[in-house]
Amino acid sequence: GENVEQHPSTLSVQEGDSAVIKCTYSDSASNYFPWYKQELGKRPQLIIDIRSNVGEKKDQRIAVTLNKTAKHFSLHITETQPEDSAVYFCAAFLANYGQNFVFGPGTRLSVLP
Amino acid sequence: KAGVTQTPRYLIKTRGQQVTLSCSPISGHRSVSWYQQTPGQGLQFLFEYFSETQRNKGNFPGRFSGRQFSNSRSEMNVSTLELGDSALYLCASSLQSGGGNEQFFGPGTRLTVL
Fold first, then answer.
1. Sheet strand arrangement including B74-78
2. Which of A44, A53, B94, B102 is the most buried if burial means most Cβ atoms within 10 Å?
3. Neighboring chain A residues of B97 at a CB cutoff of 8 Å
4. pLDDT at position B100, please?
5. What tens digit of pLDDT does each residue of A34-80 get?
6. What is the distance of C-alpha A15 from the center of its chain?
7. Residues of B in contact with A105 (CB under 8 A)
8. What's A84's DSSP letter?
9. Binning pLDDT at 50, 70 and 90, where does residue B102 land?
10. Which residue has the higher pLDDT, B72 or B100?
11. What angle (nearest 5°) sits at the alpha carbon of residue A81, between those of residues A32 and B2?
12. Residue A43 is nearest to which of B59, B90, B98, comparing CB atoms?
């Protein structure tokens, strides 16, 4: 079936460094790609999203890029802080297969002080 | 505006029993989706309800069912519980159905099956 791959599964960075998480999707008709942050014991929270008619979107230290041709999108976090430590999930809305969201397996980001 | 709420927050059941979980969406949101989250399988889509109708369904057995009421509140039922049903069940609400609509998650119901 349709799936979303996400890499890396774990990522450790020093405080102040940048972190990049990459996702690939298989449904070429996917048109909406949100990113969620889930802290331990808490609910997933949307941190940024991008639609298929946009190549890049930025919100302060967080940015997302989308390459429709290659069918991949990436999350970029600059000037990381310890409070950025969490599990990050990417997702793609499948327009052709059941009209639902498929999530990547998650990336555990640890920001070391 | 109040966020998405789920009840109960924790449940312990035994194999063979059934369980009903409840989700109250953000006021004005008409779409409610349910997800199962486990360490091994991640977040998996169960089904979506919009205007009291099931719009989409994931790849789960028929033991998993749901419904939505006229006030958009949704319930999810799991019958004949199995050990593998132990998971965090999350619901998410959005204004409308379909892509491009931001989903807001509830805190989840942690179900443990013994």
1. B5-7, B19-24, B74-78, B64-68
2. A44
3. 99
4. 72
5. 999 999 989 999 999 999 888 999 999 999 999 999 999 999 999 99
6. 20
7. 42
8. G
9. confident
10. B72
11. 55
12. B90
Q: Which structure tokens are listed for B92?
A: 């998410």
Instruction: Inform me whether the C-beta atom of residue A98 falls under 8 Å from chain B C-beta atoms.
Output: yes
Interface test with chain A among B10, B43, B50, by most A beta carbons within 10 Å: B43
Residue B35, both tokens = 């997800």
Query: How far is residue B11's CA from residue B19's CA, in Å, rounded to a whole number?
Result: 9
Q: Is the confidence at residue A96, as pLDDT, over 70?
A: no
Q: Is the pLDDT of residue B56 over 60?
A: yes
DSSP string covering chain B: ----EEE-SEEEE-TT--EEEEEEPPTT--EEEEEEEETTTEEEEEEEEETTEEEEE-S--TTEEEEE-TTS-EEEEE-S--GGG-EEEEEEEESSSSTTPPPEE---EEEEE-
**Cβ of A2 under 8 Å from any chain B Cβ?**
no
CB A89 to CB B42 under 8 A? Answer: yes
Q: At B84, is the pLDDT very low, low, confident or very high (cuts 50, 70, 90)?
A: very high
